[in-house]
């Protein structure tokens, strides 16, 4: 946005790259092209914008600022009008590509922005968008691009993260809502300061689809309430990122999510079957849009997904790149906490008391007696009141209460009846109701 | 009668003299004990003592002569004095004597000697082995439950209580959840308040504007004809989108037209991988599932609220259409036609009696007073190695009852088996001196349909 003479800055950029004595590679991008690169394992790559303007997933790059990307990052630098960038460090691949669907994404944004304007004028609520598609088609990236564009125009959209496997807001195994107030940091992503996080407990919605749908409804309810009191949030609407599970119950969960959030637009990435089915199963006033995926999307392996999950939990405790936070380790007595697992094993309907249905067992809280098998599990600290009886009709149930933080059990001493936990804050625990996750985290490195 | 008995004992030459102490309800030996000491009796303050039933049995065998007020007791007097509700009942003694005569080692059951569920889980050595428990030094107890069970580990007991408590709590919470309407204010309060409320406002905004009433036009809110989404699915659209208004774009970008034709070719080059089952299911769905938008009533809906209301009405109507003689009485069918897609599901739905295991849910049951385990029984072939200080795991435990009394129900059997731990409980049923033994086995009904 700064108007500078392009020639001069280009020269500056070249000289600075040369002066540092690094082996920076210069790339000159034509208009509407993108530079895609992957960082090699164990390496770091520095990116610098030398001339023109460019953006990474919708966040603008500052000129002559060095951005560092860690090992395994997959980055696309896009430019609308052409630019020059330099890369320093070892990249696995680095190439310039012309066929990028950014133009379609930008047009999508334009249409959503039109809807926001209309909402502002009519004093109505803004567009609620759901992004769906199979795994590895760039759902999260599309969400990030659309949110960035909206927030750069002064909107306050909300990101609703329903992807329990690869959450971009909190650690895996959670469902979260995040109010977006500034564009995502090029390196770190959206600043996560006061997210609303619910405990799901597993990395795939299939383990407890009832709970998944219930938490989706919970998030929708909270979001609607927020829209009622906050006009800006209401106009900004929300962008819902979903799981890559689009068959069977996963598909049903998508339809349920659409009706819970009362979505206006569904963006389907790269799957015609899903597009046709949603067109058939969603009422006519919902606009279903089929978008292509970017050619730059890389398929992640199972191991890669696990690693990125691990990295996300490590980031929660130790900060971005493991440098900024210093977590605490302390002992918690078993008698001071109550630990629950959500979901009891299923039993036939006919065995249940009259009027109870199977939902109740999947949503049941089962007390867990602390034992050695608790070691390395991630526990959510529920924000429910400690003295609130679970059956108390007055207070919000443990299931529907947001999470105030996470701890990891690093050791269990059954003799002394204590467990050692890794916690982001010093003792004591803010609340004493803990929910156990299937996810484990081993605190190495 | 006295004399005959007295002389019989004398003839054997090893008759042990003992004194009945009614306050303690036990018998103190006055002369050194015989061979029976290996498996019977206990020491109390340096004296060798016998439990009432042991003394009575030994009297019957002619090994012990019991004196009371310096007079020897007859066997009949022994029955009268030794057996009472505070020591043993006649039925219990009959079972005791029967087993003893068959050669078994029989001891009174002591609840505290059974390792708790928790100890067993941890594979702790049985607490009998620990130093602090001295079964030999025990004072006589009025009931088989010895008073020193409090000294086992208090922590263990505490956690067990805690567990059952939380279990109850969670049940309550379940009941609480089923109430449909929860106050909305609660929900807002439970949300963690952000630190700098001036910056980020989830809830409070200075200028709250009331949301306007729904616009009452018949058309849906959004006019998607004028909103140009780059939809690759709708083939009828023009293949080229006009460039969007720069004011809608970040940084007031100016971009050209958007050509969609090249993208159409690039869509879905890869075949979607579906298993055969998934493909079958999809085919079924395609066959029976119509486009909901062909329904004129759905077409009339303008927004989600109306659509959800319509669906709700339809569902209620569908429930009404079910035959009244089946569904509107107290007893309703166990299965619903729509739910029967496999044998397994049908079996699950019609199985009224749930298989349950012995240990399930015992902690929540109130204790029964009438039913108690009376004896630990050890097999005769272990007598040679038997040690009173380390009796080890019994072969079985006896619960004595009578044919006159009630039959134990499932709750009692569960409780007793829980008390007994991993040792089987045998019910000895006494019918005027005839004793029959019953035990229950835990097994799973075969179900080959799955």
TrEMBL record, chain A:
InterPro entries: Clp1, Clp1/Grc3, Clp1_C, Clp1_C_sf, Clp1_N, Clp1_N_sf, CLP1_P, P-loop_NTPase. GO terms for biological process: brain development; mRNA 3'-end processing; RISC complex assembly; tRNA splicing, via endonucleolytic cleavage and ligation. It is an enzyme of class 2 (transferase). Residues 1-27 are annotated as: Disordered. GO terms for molecular function: ATP binding; ATP-dependent polydeoxyribonucleotide 5'-hydroxyl-kinase activity; ATP-dependent polyribonucleotide 5'-hydroxyl-kinase activity. It catalyses: a 5'-end dephospho-2'-deoxyribonucleoside-DNA + ATP = a 5'-end 5'-phospho-2'-deoxyribonucleoside-DNA + ADP + H(+); a 5'-end dephospho-ribonucleoside-RNA + ATP = a 5'-end 5'-phospho-ribonucleoside-RNA + ADP + H(+). The keyword Nucleotide-binding applies. It is found in: Nucleus. One of its GO terms (cellular component) is tRNA-intron endonuclease complex. It holds the Pfam family CLP1_N. ATP binds at residues 34, 74, 136-141. Keywords: ATP-binding, Kinase, mRNA processing, Nucleotide-binding, Nucleus, Transferase, tRNA processing. Component of the tRNA splicing endonuclease complex. Component of pre-mRNA cleavage complex II (CF-II). Belongs to the Clp1 family. Clp1 subfamily. PANTHER family: CLEAVAGE/POLYADENYLATION FACTOR IA SUBUNIT CLP1P, POLYRIBONUCLEOTIDE 5'-HYDROXYL-KINASE CLP1. This is Polyribonucleotide 5'-hydroxyl-kinase Clp1. The gene is CLP1.
TrEMBL record, chain B:
One of its GO terms (biological process) is tRNA-type intron splice site recognition and cleavage. One of its GO terms (molecular function) is endonuclease activity. Residues 142-154, 165-182 have a biased composition (Polar residues). One of its GO terms (cellular component) is tRNA-intron endonuclease complex. The keyword Nuclease applies. It holds the Pfam family tRNA_int_end_N2. Residues 123-201 are annotated as: Disordered. The keyword Transferase does not apply. Keywords: Endonuclease, Hydrolase, Nuclease, tRNA processing. Residues 12-68 form the tRNA-splicing endonuclease subunit Sen54 N-terminal domain. Coiled coil: none annotated. InterPro entries: tRNA_splic_suSen54, tRNA_splic_suSen54_N. It comes from the Eukaryota. Belongs to the SEN54 family. This is tRNA-splicing endonuclease subunit. It comes from Triplophysa tibetana.
């Amino acid at each position: 946005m700064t108007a500078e003479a392009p020639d001069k800055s280009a020269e500056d950029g070249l000289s600075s790259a040369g002066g540092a004595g690094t082996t920076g590679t210069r790339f000159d991008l034509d208009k509407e092209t993108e530079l895609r690169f992957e960082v090699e394992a164990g390496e770091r790559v520095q990116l610098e914008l030398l001339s023109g303007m460019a953006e990474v997933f919708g966040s603008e790059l500052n000129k002559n600022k060095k951005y560092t990307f860690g090992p395994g990052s997959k980055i696309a630098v896009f430019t609308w009008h052409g630019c020059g960038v330099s890369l320093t460090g070892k990249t696995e691949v680095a190439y310039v590509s012309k066929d990028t669907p950014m133009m379609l994404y930008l047009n999508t944004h334009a249409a959503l922005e039109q809807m926001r304007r209309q909402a502002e004028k009519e004093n109505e609520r803004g567009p609620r968008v759901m992004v769906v598609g199979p795994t590895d088609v760039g759902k999260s990236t599309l969400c990030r691009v659309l949110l960035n564009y909206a927030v750069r125009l002064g909107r306050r959209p909300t990101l609703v993260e329903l992807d329990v496997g690869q959450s971009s807001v909190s650690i895996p195994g959670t469902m979260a809502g995040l109010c977006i107030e500034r564009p995502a940091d090029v390196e770190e992503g959206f600043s996560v300061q006061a997210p609303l996080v619910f405990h799901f407990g597993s990395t795939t919605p299939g383990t407890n689809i009832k709970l998944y749908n219930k938490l989706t409804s919970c998030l929708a309810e909270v979001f609607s309430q927020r829209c009622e009191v906050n006009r800006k949030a209401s106009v900004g609407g929300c962008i819902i990122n979903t799981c890559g599970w689009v068959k069977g119950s996963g598909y049903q969960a998508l339809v349920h999510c659409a009706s819970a959030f009362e979505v206006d637009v569904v963006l389907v990435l790269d799957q015609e079957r899903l597009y046709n089915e949603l067109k058939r199963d969603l009422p006519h006033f919902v606009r279903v849009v089929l978008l292509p995926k970017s050619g730059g999307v890389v398929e992640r392996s199972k191991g890669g997904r696990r690693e990125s999950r691990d990295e996300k939990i490590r980031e929660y405790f130790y900060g971005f790149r493991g440098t900024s936070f210093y977590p605490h380790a302390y002992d918690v007595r078993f008698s001071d906490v109550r630990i629950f697992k959500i979901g009891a094993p299923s039993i036939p309907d006919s065995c249940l008391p009259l009027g109870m249905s199977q939902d109740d067992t999947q949503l049941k809280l089962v007390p867990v007696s602390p034992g050695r098998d608790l070691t390395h599990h991630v526990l959510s600290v529920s924000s429910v009141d400690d003295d609130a009886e679970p059956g108390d009709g007055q207070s919000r149930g443990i299931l529907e209460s947001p999470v105030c933080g996470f701890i990891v059990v690093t050791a269990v001493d059954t003799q002394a009846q204590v467990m050692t936990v890794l916690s982001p804050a010093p003792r004591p625990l803010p609340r004493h109701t803990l929910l156990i996750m299937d996810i484990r985290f081993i605190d190495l490195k | 009668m006295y004399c005959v008995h007295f002389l019989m004992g004398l003839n054997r030459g090893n008759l042990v003299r003992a004194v009945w102490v009614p306050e303690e309800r036990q018998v103190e030996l006055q002369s050194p004990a015989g061979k029976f000491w290996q498996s019977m009796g206990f020491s109390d303050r340096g004296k060798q003592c016998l439990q009432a039933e042991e003394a009575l049995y030994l009297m019957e065998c002619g090994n012990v002569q019991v004196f009371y007020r310096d007079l020897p007791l007859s066997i009949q007097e022994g029955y009268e004095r030794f057996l009472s509700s505070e020591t043993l009942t006649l039925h219990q003694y009959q079972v005791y004597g029967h087993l003893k005569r068959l050669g078994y080692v029989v001891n009174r059951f002591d609840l505290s000697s059974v390792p708790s569920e928790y100890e067993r889980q941890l594979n702790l050595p049985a607490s009998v082995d620990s130093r602090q428990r001295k079964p030999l030094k025990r004072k006589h107890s009025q009931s088989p439950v010895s008073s020193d069970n409090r000294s086992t580990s208090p922590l263990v007991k505490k956690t067990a209580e805690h567990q059952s408590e939380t279990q109850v709590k969670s049940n309550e919470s379940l009941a609480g959840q089923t109430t449909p309407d929860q106050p909305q204010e609660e929900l807002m309060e439970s949300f963690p308040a952000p630190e700098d409320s001036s910056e980020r406002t989830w809830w409070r905004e200075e200028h709250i504007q009331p949301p306007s009433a729904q616009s009452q036009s018949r058309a849906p809110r959004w006019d998607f004809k004028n909103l140009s989404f780059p939809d690759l699915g709708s083939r009828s659209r023009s293949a080229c989108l006009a460039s969007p208004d720069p004011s809608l774009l970040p940084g007031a970008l100016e971009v050209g037209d958007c050509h969609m034709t090249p993208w159409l070719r690039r869509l879905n080059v890869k075949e979607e991988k579906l298993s055969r089952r998934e493909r079958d299911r999809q085919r079924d769905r395609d066959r029976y599932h119509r486009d909901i938008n062909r329904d004129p009533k759905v077409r009339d809906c303008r927004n989600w609220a109306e659509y959800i209301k319509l669906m709700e009405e339809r569902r209620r109507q569908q429930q009404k259409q079910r035959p009244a003689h089946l569904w509107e009485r107290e007893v309703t069918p166990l299965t619903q036609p729509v739910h029967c897609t496999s044998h397994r599901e049908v079996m699950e739905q019609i199985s009224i009696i749930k298989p349950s295991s012995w240990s399930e849910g015992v902690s929540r049951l109130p204790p029964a007073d009438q039913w108690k385990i009376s004896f630990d029984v050890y097999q005769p072939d272990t007598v040679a190695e038997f040690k009173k200080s380390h009796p080890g795991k019994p072969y079985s435990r006896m619960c004595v009852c009578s044919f006159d009394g009630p039959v134990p129900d499932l709750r009692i059997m569960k409780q007793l088996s829980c008390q007994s731990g991993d040792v089987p409980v045998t019910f000895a049923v006494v019918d005027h001196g005839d004793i029959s033994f019953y035990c229950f086995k835990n097994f799973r009904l075969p179900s080959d349909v799955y």
